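Batch manifest, entry 17 of 40.
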Amino acid sequence: MLSNRQEQILYAVIEEYAETAAPVGSQTLSKLFGVSSATIRTEMNRLETLGLLAHPYTSAGRIPTDAGYRLYVNSLTQEVDCGVMPKEQCLKSRFNRVLTARVSAESSLSSAIKNVVDSLVDLTGNLGLGTIGDQLYLAGISKLFNQPEYEDVSKVQAVAKLLDNLEPWLREAAPGQPLNIFIGQENPIGKTSEASLIISKFRSPLSDRSYIGVLGPTRQNYSDVMALVYNAGNMLEEYYD
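Output type: structure tokens
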């Protein structure tokens, strides 16, 4: 059981790391929390013992583990669920205004799905994916591999393995939630890729098991990306229902 401060420190490390791609040190967080670096180090050591943070051997700072990300993502799930938020609050962001405009501008569903996938690439810097009937549409592979994580060739190979097997896996596993998040080693394939798959299931005239989403590094802005992917699926389903 984490204390409130430990939880907030974990979340701060995750959010800072998403912005900088550099391990987060105690001095950075001591200014944020208004406590000494020694106090922050004690709490970070505890989080590391619990397996929520890791200590890269090349740095004095900490980075999140898959387990740390999972705890953080679980805390965001209700915030992303537009069913418990005023509709205007869900749709007021620039991201969602862009998606709404692009969905409504298309007359065919396949064109709309491709357009929304391309929009997800532009807005997140991740690889975008969408199912069009029985086919998988991918865009933004170069953007994904421009992320600093993928200077490591072994991680690129792991992502390639994941992508090679993603279409049959989606058909077989058929993730059933409106928003599905697979973090790092939670992915069924390419477990060493340090990638997160965030996908939304939606119904369409092409299939009642259509998916749209992104694949990006585990280091990303989950709050924005989860809301964006959820709303992308929701908009496509509502518009073409």
